[in-house]
Amino acid sequence: MIKMTGKIYIVGIGPGASEYLTKKAIDTVKMSNYTVGSTRAIELFDDVQNKLAFNVKELLDTLEKGVRLAVDGNVVSILSTGDPGFSGVLNTVLRISEEKNFPKENIEVIPGISSLQLAAARCHIQWDNANVMTFHGRENIEDILPVINNGKTTIALPSRKVKDMAQFLIDNGVKKDRKVTVCERLSYPDERIVNSTLYDIAESEFTYMCIMVIDP
Ligand SMILES: C[S@@+](CC[C@H](N)C(=O)[O-])C[C@H]1O[C@@H](n2cnc3c(N)ncnc32)[C@H](O)[C@@H]1O
Questions:
Q1: Is 12 in the pocket of ligand 1 (CB under 6 A)?
Q2: How many domains does the chain divide into?
Q3: Nearest alpha-carbon partner for 148 in 133, 138, 163
Q4: Does a structural domain hold residue 179?
Q5: Which of 157, 160, 184, 207 for mutating ligand 1's site (highest number of atoms within 8 Å of CB)?
Q6: Closest by alpha carbon to 80, among 127, 121, 31, 29?
Q7: Is there an atom of ligand 1 within 6 Å of 185 CB?
Q8: Mean pLDDT score of the chain, rounded to an integer?
Q9: CATH number at residue 197
Q10: From the CA of 210, how far away is ligand 1's center (Å)?
Q11: CA 116 / ligand 1 centre spacing (Å)
Q12: What is the mean pLDDT of residues 102-108?
């Protein structure tokens, strides 16, 4: 019997609220045999056939399970917050698929609205001219230092607490009164946009779901 190769869709789900889901994302999940994602991501969809929900600890195992289901001939949607290509699961899924000899041409990326885009929109920033940096899940925080004073706005996904990132910049010679906007829980009902200075942000508490927009 010839085994059919399945298909993997890596689906961007936007920053969190259902109004930022694309129709393409909704239609793709609807026609998939399996949908893999965090509980929060899966809950955004009304029409899901088989759910494989994960928490952060189980992420890799569940992604592997999803890829195996596609190897077995299923159509699998893998959900990624924001856009899959910006600090999302894209590279991880590509790596697992390659390990399992799942063909790249059977993988399709469905873009989503990134939290970066929504932060830029909230701050009225033309982000094509900004320093866009992500430190999420990385410890390369010092990479921000060569660009922070290059005259452009810096939009950053912090690697640690926002207050620690602000303190790191102050400790490394960035002026305390530098203007910074923290965009927290974008698109959710409790969204907060805080316009402040590095000094005040270093003294404030935020959740992990934040983007920092640092003025030139
Ligand atoms: C794993 S990264 C995913 C980024 C995602 N791929 C994107 O394009 O927005 C998770 C980080 O993105 C940022 N983030 C995601 N959703 C957010 C939201 N609704 N509001 C603010 N920041 C958000 C936070 O910094 C969070 O820690």
A1: no
A2: 2
A3: 133
A4: yes
A5: 157
A6: 29
A7: yes
A8: 93
A9: 3.30.950.10
A10: 7
A11: 8
A12: 97
Minimum CA distance residue for ligand 1 atom 23 = 209
Distance CA 212, CA 181 (A): 6
pTM of the model: 0.93
Check whether residue 81 and residue 133 sit in a common domain: no
Task: Give yes or no for residue 131 CB within 6 A of ligand 1.
Answer: no
Residue 2 in any domain: the answer is no
CB 197 within 8 A of CB 176: yes
Is the CB of 214 inside a 6 Å radius of any atom of ligand 1?
no
Secondary structure class of 34 (helix, strand, coil) = strand
Query: Which residue range(s) make up the domain with 84?
Result: 7-110
CA distance 166 to 148: 12
- Identify the CA nearest to 110 among candidates 4, 18, 29: 29
The whole-number pLDDT of residue 89 equals 94
pLDDT single digits (tens) 123-161: 999 999 999 998 877 668 888 899 999 999 999 998 779
Please give the torsion angle defined by the CA atoms of residues 118, 122, 124 and 128, in that order, rounded to the nearest 10 degrees. Answer: -20
Asked whether residue 198 is assigned to any structural domain, the reply reads: yes
Most informative mutation of 138, 163, 192, 209 for ligand 1 (most atoms within 8 A of CB): 209
- Band (pLDDT 50/70/90 cuts) for residue 58 is confident
φ/ψ bin of 185: left (φ > 0), alpha (ψ from -120 to 50), beta (otherwise): left
